[in-house]
Design goal:
Helices cover 37% and strands 1% of the residues. With 357 residues, the chain is mainly α. It folds into two domains: 135 residues, Cytochrome Bc1 Complex, Chain D, domain 2 (Orthogonal Bundle); 145 residues, Cytochrome c-like domain (Cytochrome Bc1 Complex, Chain D, domain 2, Orthogonal Bundle).
C-alpha cells in the first residue's frame, strides 16, 4: 500500500504536466509544428513541347502549397491599403491577365501611365515591366503594393493584415514552414503562381503538333509574318513570340516616356520598350506601352505606314523612311488572320488560374 502511494505521488504531478501541455497544443502560435503540417509537395511544371527551360530561382522552387498560396494572394484585395484592389484587378483572366483599359486605376482613383502588360508565359521572361525595371517575377511583385498610384500600401501593413488571418497563417506555414513570414514570402508565392500561367494550346500550337491545318489565308499571313514582307519575326521570334529584348519601334519622333532610359540612363535607350508576346494578342487590347492602339488592325496599320524616325530607332525598323513595310489591304487581312491563330481560349478558361472556391 505504501508503495502504491509513493507511485501515485510521483505519477500525479507528471500527469498534471502532461495534461497542461496537451491543452497548450491547441495554441497554433506556440507549437506550429503540431498545429500545421510543413511537408511541401514539389510541383512538376509541364513545359510544353518546343518551349525552352523556364527560369526557376534556386530559392523559390515550385510547390503545390506555394502555388495555392500565390493564387489566393493574386486574387485577394487584402494587399491593398483599403482592401479594394488585387493583382487580378489589373490583370484579368478574360483578357489574358491584361487590362482592357488603356491605363489601370489605383485605389485612390489615380491613373497609371503605362498599359498593364499581359501575364502570358511570364516565367520565361528575363525582364519584367515595359522598361525592364524588374529582373524577376519576385522583384516585380514587390512594386504594386507600395506604389502610390496602385495599391498604395506599405509592406509592414500588408503583412500585418495577412498575419491576422488564420487561413493565411496556415497556408504560409504549409508553403514556407514559418508563421513569421514577411514580404519576401508573399512575393515568392505570387511568383510561383505566375509561373504556372502557361499558354500553349492556340491553333498555331495545334498546327505545330500536327493536329490541324492552317487555312489558305492563315498560311499567307504566316508567310508575311516570317518574311521581310511583314518583317514581324525579328522582334516576335521563337515559340514565345517575343525576343525578350528592348526596341525603339518607331512609335514617336520625341518621347514623352523614355522607356528603358529611365532604368539605364543610357541615351541610346530612349524610346526602347520590352517586346510583348503576340500570344493571345487578340484578347490583350489596347496595344503598346501606352495603350494608344485599340485594335490589332491599328497596330498593323502603324507598322505598314506609321513609323516615325528618331535617333534611337532600332536598325530592324529598316523601312522607316517609307513609313513602314507598306502592306496592301489584302496583306493586312492575311497577317491579322495569322495573328489570330495565336489565340488560346483554353488559357482564358483555365479554372486553375481563377480564384479558388
Amino acid at each position: 500500500m505504501i508503495e502504491i502511494i509513493k507511485i501515485l505521488k510521483w505519477f500525479l504531478p507528471v500527469l498534471s504536466l502532461a495534461l497542461l501541455f496537451s491543452c497548450q497544443k491547441t495554441n497554433e502560435d506556440e507549437i506550429p509544428g503540431q498545429a500545421y503540417r510543413y511537408d511541401p509537395t514539389p510541383f512538376a511544371l509541364d513545359i510544353p513541347t518546343g518551349f525552352p527551360d523556364m527560369i526557376m530561382p534556386v530559392d523559390n522552387q515550385l510547390t503545390e502549397e506555394g502555388i495555392s498560396l500565390g493564387r489566393k494572394l493574386f486574387h485577394d484585395p487584402i494587399l491593398s491599403a483599403d482592401d479594394s484592389q488585387s493583382c487580378a484587378s489589373c490583370h484579368l483572366q478574360d483578357f489574358s491577365f491584361a487590362d482592357p483599359n488603356r491605363f489601370s486605376i489605383g485605389i485612390d482613383g489615380l491613373e497609371g501611365s503605362r498599359n498593364a502588360t499581359a501575364l502570358i508565359n511570364v516565367g520565361w521572361l528575363s525582364h519584367l515591366n515595359w522598361d525592364g525595371s524588374a529582373k524577376s517575377l519576385e522583384e516585380q511583385a514587390f512594386e504594386p503594393v507600395m506604389n502610390p498610384v496602385e495599391m498604395h500600401n506599405s509592406w509592414p501593413q500588408a503583412v500585418t493584415s495577412l498575419k491576422s488571418d488564420s487561413t493565411y497563417k496556415r497556408m504560409f506555414f504549409e508553403a514556407f514552414g514559418t508563421l513569421d513570414f514577411d514580404s519576401t514570402h508573399v512575393v515568392k508565392a505570387i511568383a510561383q503562381f505566375e509561373r504556372t500561367l502557361i499558354s500553349s494550346n492556340s491553333k498555331w500550337d495545334r498546327y505545330l503538333r500536327g493536329e490541324v491545318s492552317l487555312t489558305q489565308a492563315e498560311s499567307r499571313g504566316f508567310e508575311i509574318f516570317f518574311t521581310e514582307k511583314g518583317d514581324c519575326f525579328h522582334c516576335h521570334s521563337t515559340i514565345l513570340f517575343t525576343d525578350n529584348d528592348f526596341h525603339n519601334n518607331g512609335l514617336d519622333a520625341f518621347f514623352a516616356d523614355p522607356g528603358l532610359y529611365e532604368v539605364t540612363n543610357d541615351p541610346n535607350d530612349e524610346g526602347r520598350f520590352r517586346t510583348p508576346t503576340l500570344r493571345n494578342a487578340e484578347f490583350t487590347a489596347p496595344y503598346m506601352h501606352d495603350g494608344r492602339f485599340q485594335t490589332l488592325e491599328k497596330v498593323i496599320d502603324f507598322y505598314s505606314e506609321g513609323l516615325q524616325y528618331s535617333e534611337t530607332i532600332d536598325p530592324l525598323m529598316k523601312n522607316v523612311d517609307e513609313g513602314g513595310v507598306q502592306l496592301t489591304e489584302e496583306e493586312k487581312f492575311y497577317l491579322l488572320t495569322f495573328l489570330k491563330t495565336l489565340s488560346d481560349t483554353t488559357f482564358l478558361q483555365n479554372s486553375a488560374y481563377a480564384p479558388a472556391d
